[in-house]
Amino acid sequence: MDPTDIAIIHQDADLLAVDKPAGLAVHRSRMVAHEGDYLMDRLRAQVGGGLYLVNRLDRATSGLVLVARSRDMAAALGGQLMSRSVQKTYLAVVRGWPAAEGEIDHPLTVGGMKGERKPALTRWRRLATVEVPIAMGRYERQRYALLALSPVTGRYRQLRRHLHHIGHHIIGDSTLGRGEHNRLFRQHFACHRMLLHAWRLRLRHPGSGEPLALEAPLDATWSALLQRFDWTHCLD
């Protein structure tokens, strides 16, 4: 297997579900115009044929990306996403200990940090917590939590912005996160990525109508942290 190949989670005549690595941009855009390596370019070289991107992830986020084999299939999948019938679950490690479950109902601008605000809703479930004996600032120990996040809407960087809004920043988020906590994870846990992963998708296959359950495995950084914090049993 070529080391640049993208891991394929599901493949049939109508669609592919692939596991995007952290740090890889999905496609060419104004925001990543300086990049020379893109998920869609790799995938076209790998599988050939027509490919139509259905959903997008930030370059720093890993996990499930849907790609259709035709414009009609892309439109059908896009319709499911727009109607909010696709169940999306992300995993994130955040600063602090949020409540056991909750939701963030906070409007967000559509394309960035300025402009018209649109409704945005994220639900969370806390899967595990940890307290590490590393002093920082006025605290002798630092608290972190593993969350399952379910975005009901799909605004620009919604999860990162919503967790920032409630003060439970995602670890490794270099834009909205807390630099001192990001450094702690780099120095003590060899974590050099943002800890946000598009983990599971539940949808109807646009061709057959059958339910489709998809899951992207966790990379080496995630797996090492789950072992270190004794969180491996928390993923149901």
Description:
By secondary structure, this protein is an alpha+beta fold. The chain has one domain: Pseudouridine synthase (2-Layer Sandwich). It has five helices and twelve strands. It is globular.
In short, what is this structure?
With 236 residues, the chain is of the alpha+beta class. Helices cover 21% and strands 31% of the residues. Strands 1, 2, 3, 4, 5, 6, 9, 10, 11 and 12 form a ten-stranded mixed beta sheet that branches.
Q: In CATH terms, what is the architecture?
A: 2-Layer Sandwich
Quickly count the domains. Answer: 1
What is the overall silhouette?
globular
Radius of gyration: 18 Å
CATH class: Alpha Beta
Annotated CATH homologous superfamily = Pseudouridine synthase
Instruction: Provide the structure class.
Output: alpha+beta
What does the main sheet amount to? 10 strands, mixed
Distance between the termini: 30 Å
> In what range is the share of β-strand residues?
25-35%
Q: Mean of residue pLDDT?
A: 93
Query: Multimeric state of these chains?
Result: single chain
Summed up, the helix count is 5
CATH topology: Pseudouridine synthase
Number of DSSP-assigned strands = 12
Bin the helical content.
10-25%
Low-confidence stretches: none
H-E order: EEHEEHEEEEEEHHEEH
